[in-house]
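Protein in question kept in full:
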Amino acid sequence: MGHSYAVLGAGRQGTAAAYDIARFGEADRVAMVDADDRRVREAVIRVNSLVGLEAVHGVVADVRDDPTMQRILEDVDVFVSAVPYRFNRDLARVAIRSGASMVDLGGNTEIVRDQLRLAPEARDAGITIVPDCGMGPGLNLTMAAYGMELLDKPEHVFLLDGGLPQDPRPPWSYALTFNVEGLTNEYTGSATFIRKGKLVEVPALTEREVVDFPGIGRLEAMVTSGGLSTAPWSFLGTLTSLENKTLRHPGHWAKMVAFKELGLFDVTPIEVDGRAIAPRHVFHALFGPQAGAGHVRDVCAIQARVLGQRGGAPAEVVVTIVDRFDEATQFTAMERLTGWHAAIVAEMIASGSMPTGAHPVELGVPPRPFMREALRRGLAIDARVGRAEEIIA
């Protein structure tokens, strides 16, 4: 007997998650839930065609309708929330009432904290909640945890990740493969890192560096917010350093810094021609259609560099994934790495591989079993262990 799943949100990453669950999740049934009937039908047809089974069925419903969602989820073992992060706090409570385990794509650390506070209720309900899955945060932290397990004493973790067009074109040298609101959310505020064993706040869009990334070439990296989720607090006292930066093609960051300094990322409305308008909404309306236009053939890159001790000597572990647009399924690399990470975690919960309660992604996902599942899907993972020439003080 297989498992019963639901995917909330029939967009890009939700469709990729449903595909992975239908193909690898030992699923008896997968409900694709969205308020948009046309989007549901298109996602169902696409996934069923790809897997060659009538595994997925559509359900038209609004995730804001708690009673309806509870009725839908009462027959579900595990669901993936691929809707905007602002809905996940309420959906976690619906998960507890319905007895369905939950995985989501996150996007807001404070909401994630609220979900994790529900751990006692989740245990009492016999369910598991793992928020903030996806590419980053999510897969980047699972890779870091894997690298940490390969050392006797991990001390420093440095992460790089980014979704990029394979053929960058001016003026942005970037292709938007997820919601533009998520992008500006990353480009504002600050990131919480561990430096010298203490938590520090580092402003977004600072500390630019040039990176030669294996398999891709010359890129630029800058600090963005939210990529570590709750990991700095989870690893405080264990790690001396924990940092991450986002990768882009050369030239992109200079333009984004200019937009930020101009005020286009601000959410406080300003008066224009007698009307109050939030500058960020103007940026979304202009940048989103341009950066997200056309058929994107992308490449996603993640690297976790872990330094510490192994066998009494300094050692370094480097775990790298480079994934590209898949011609066979037409899934972008961003859809694959984001949707598949959440799907694999959901499938691990369904199989009984994870304890009940609410767990941060960096602690809740078993790294080695996850890596085996990622390899089973053909993801190119390179993991190297060697002596570190220098350990950062």
